[in-house]
Amino acid sequence: MKPMTKPVRCQLSPSLALIKYWGKRGRQHIPATTSIATSLNALHNSVTVAIASKDELQLNGQQLSAVVVKKYYLPFLDHLRAHLRVSCHFAIDMLLNFPLAAGLASSSSIFASLTLALTSLCNYRGSPATLSSLARQGSTSAARAIFGGFVIFPAGARAARPLPLPHHWSELRIIVAITDHSYKRVSTRPAMSVVQRSSFAYRGWVWSAQKIATTARAALREHNLEKLGEAMRASYLGMHATMLAARPPILYWNENSIKLIHLCEDLRLRGIEAWETMDAGPQVKILTTQQHVPRIMREIEGLKGVKSVVSELGVAPQIERLATVAPKELVELVCR
Ligand code: PMV
Fold first, then answer.
1. How many Å apart are CA 97 and CA 138, to the nearest integer?
2. Does the beta carbon of 279 lie inside 6 Å of ligand 1?
3. What is the mean pLDDT of each run of 10 residues along the chain (336 residues)?
4. Is residue 174 a contact partner of residue 311, using CB atoms and an 8 Å limit?
5. Ligand 1 pocket member 98 (CB < 6 A)
6. Is the CB of 35 within 6 Å of ligand 1?
């Protein structure tokens, strides 16, 4: 495969799981539970890649340290090189418009956009499933972020796939309430492995996860927000329960996370659909419909130190368009 001479740029949004995966099977980042996710259009990262004499990575204009590159990026880059049968190195420039490693799924969009950009740079045309599987080597959630719109990543699978809804659900919105911009206390990989090793709640979580995912799929088909919201709550609260029961326990929530959870409860009691979810971090993402956004935003503004962003949900799987474009035209891959 002869790499392209021009740099390639790719922009993607992170994959927010409405139904979570938490825990892995084996050593290949295969998810232990089924996740259902959507891309968050308001957040995105862009990566520009070019051939270089050694691997050099920049994030938001700052060179990444050798330790960070070795720990988080090299295993992914080496796997990709082996798969593509290339020995070249890459200059990688990444820009994020949202906080990194703070529970906003930054690794999902970073590794998915790297996969698309680097495979294009190397003139490699894999199927969407192969690209999703390659992205999984960077982070499991990146296998989902390759696709826009709703995506399912079944337990035990190597790749995610699009989950198109029979009818477009255009009113859905997600409010991302950012309670803390700092790096998360424990990164996802060690957190999952502590939980799998030591949490008495982990088996119960895996046992209940499939039923929750099936309910969520039905709710998406029926456009039933209450049913979806209840499944989302069962999923994220169950996931965090496994962390609280781990040794040592892991608690990502802060004071404002708890205030936001209670706020959503109060709003629902007042007939306003506000269904929260959380990942491995203190941020709270609230699923609602367009009509309730101004009211919920006003309520959030009352909480000191919380900043929120409203996002539409990705609607179309962009990968199909990308996969059919000739490599020469792939110099700019803007996937929104
Ligand atoms: O695959 P990772 O390392 O980005 O972990 C993602 C874990 C959660 O965000 C908590 C759940 C999920 O399904 O995205």
1. 20
2. yes
3. 80 95 95 96 91 95 93 96 96 91 86 94 92 96 92 97 88 94 86 98 97 98 97 98 98 97 98 97 96 96 92 63 39 45
4. yes
5. no
6. yes
